[in-house]
Amino acid sequence: QITLKESGPTLVRPTQTLTLTCTFSGYSLSTSGVGVGWIRQPPGKALEWLALIYWDDDKRYSPSLKSRLTITKDTSKKQVVLTMTTMDPVDTATYYCAHSHYYNGGYAFDVWGQGTMVIASS
Amino acid sequence: QSALTQPPSASGSPGQSVTISCTGTSSDVGGYNYVSWYQQHPGKVPKLMIYEVNKRPSGVPDRFSGSKSGNTASLTVSGLQAEDEADYYCSSYAGSNNLFVFGSGTKVTVL
Questions:
Q1: How far is A108 from chain B (nearest CA, A)?
Q2: Which residues contact A54 (CB under 8 A, 6 or more apart)?
Q3: Host H or E run for residue A73
Q4: Using CA atoms, how far apart are residues A45 and B104, in angstroms rounded to an integer?
Q5: Mean pLDDT to the nearest integer, B86-92
Q6: B5-A44-B47-B89 Cα dihedral, nearest 10 degrees
Q7: A7 with A21: CB under 8 angstroms?
Q8: Tens digits of per-residue pLDDT, A57-70?
Q9: pLDDT digits (tens, 9 = 90+) for B40-54
Q10: Is A52 in contact with B57 (Cβ distance < 8 A)?
């Protein structure tokens, strides 16, 4: 059974850097085709894709946020970390990590974490 | 990259069908067969309902079906049930530099 869980601060100050960790189980991020992505959802608004890292360390970012994002993985710890610099109140959202498998689902997220709410406010 | 366009709302009576559209461009929806659909109940986690335009993950009822024509993808829910009342989001692959673009979301109401 695949599970993912996000962790990180609930409150960040504007201009600070946000660091979120996704800890997963039930699969290996060294398996060909597997990826872990991050998606966010501001309160009452739509989903927005942020970043994704694949088993081979290929990293992809949303063009609009690329300059602020870094995604890394620790395969042995079964963790994926997302950092977002220069936080702003508009970045207030629920942040989700999710599993993707290119060879079994293409470009889709088939299992999601519970999400973690992040508030950017002074 | 702009979000994919979805109608804000759609509704139907129990037992009826409702179809939600998702309009993009030739750079996303029209260019690839990588459209997916997610269901999200209030306060809950999104759930994958359709991937690769018309494939259903294990456990998703066959009342849910997907299709695509040109730059517009569609999700049809047949035999509407009260539990289908939720927000629905489409998503499409948009090229190697923008793997995922999501739609604006559609609230489905079961009358």
A1: 6
A2: A33, A34, A35, A60, A102
A3: strand A69-74
A4: 8
A5: 98
A6: 0
A7: yes
A8: 999 999 999 999 99
A9: 999 999 999 999 999
A10: no
